[in-house]
């Protein structure tokens, strides 16, 4: 990679990476597996027992004798106790294994309590005093609202006569120096990155970086060191994917949403370089 600009170097890297990824991992339409269980505590043995219970029930419906009823009722009650115990042990194990991870622990507790996600599938939003279902129009209005929120808050703050520069220590230097990074430093950063995190607009998540780090480490070092030397951060690494999350109130009102911004995974690597 011979680009002399951090912007052009990253653009070349991203184009090549996407081309290779799309070629090796093309998208396919996959039908949903309707037989897939939504209850992970149900083992294969329990699922077979459920099928056996259904056979008892079918036999009872065809021939509703007292013996068939008793056989079905007894098997159903025993199976219910087994399923309850399996569910209890499943949640006990995952809570115990995630007791030091507050994020996953709260997700598990919300799942147990059947709390609904704050993600709304609302398709109509109030945009410029009228309801709209046009995605492009809605996205632009969300962008304008989120972009102007900070200015609106700043305008509502009381004015003060304190110079902001007075909070900066007098011995602060006007500049700083960044040392070039290396394979060892990037490797240590990538290893510590958490798996399963959402990807930014570039669609490169942490898992993909970890799996292909040995392939992309050389161009990444070139881009990062070029950025440090030129003092220019690649523009595309500054782009955040903003997702509106519903807070409360009317789901059609833009002000009832708050944004979360997801930066590119490579941008997070650069932020951690010391």
TrEMBL record:
Upper lineage: Eukaryota, Metazoa, Echinodermata, Eleutherozoa, Echinozoa
Natural source organism: Holothuria leucospilota (Black long sea cucumber)
A GO molecular function held by the record: RNA-directed DNA polymerase activity
Domain of life (superkingdom): Eukaryota
Protein name per its UniProtKB record: RNA-directed DNA polymerase from mobile element jockey
Keywords: Nucleotidyltransferase, RNA-directed DNA polymerase, Transferase
């Amino acid at each position: 990679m011979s680009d002399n600009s951090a912007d052009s170097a990253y653009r070349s890297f991203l184009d090549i990476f996407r081309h290779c990824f799309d070629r090796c991992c093309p998208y396919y339409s996959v039908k949903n597996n309707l037989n897939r269980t939504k209850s992970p505590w149900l083992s294969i043995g329990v699922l077979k027992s459920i099928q056996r219970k259904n056979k008892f029930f079918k036999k009872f419906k065809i021939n509703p004798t007292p013996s068939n009823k008793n056989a079905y009722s007894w098997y159903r009650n025993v199976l219910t106790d087994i399923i309850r115990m399996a569910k209890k042990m499943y949640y006990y194990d995952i809570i115990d294994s995630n007791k030091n991870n507050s994020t996953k622990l709260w997700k598990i507790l919300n799942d147990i309590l059947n709390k609904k996600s704050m993600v709304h599938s609302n398709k109509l939003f109030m945009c410029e005093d009228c309801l709209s279902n046009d995605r492009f129009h809605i996205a632009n209005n969300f962008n304008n609202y989120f972009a102007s929120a900070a200015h609106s808050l700043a305008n509502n703050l009381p004015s003060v006569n304190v110079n902001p520069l007075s909070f900066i220590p007098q011995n602060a230097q006007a500049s700083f120096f960044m040392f070039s990074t290396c394979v060892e430093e990037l490797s240590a950063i990538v290893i510590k990155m958490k798996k399963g995190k959402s990807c930014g607009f570039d669609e490169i998540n942490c898992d993909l970086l970890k799996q292909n780090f040995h392939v992309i480490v050389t161009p990444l070092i070139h881009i990062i060191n070029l950025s440090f030397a030129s003092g220019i951060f690649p523009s595309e690494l500054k782009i955040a994917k903003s997702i509106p999350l519903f807070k409360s109130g009317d789901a059609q009102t833009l002000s009832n949403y708050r944004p979360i911004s997801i930066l590119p995974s490579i941008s997070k690597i650069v932020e951690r370089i010391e």
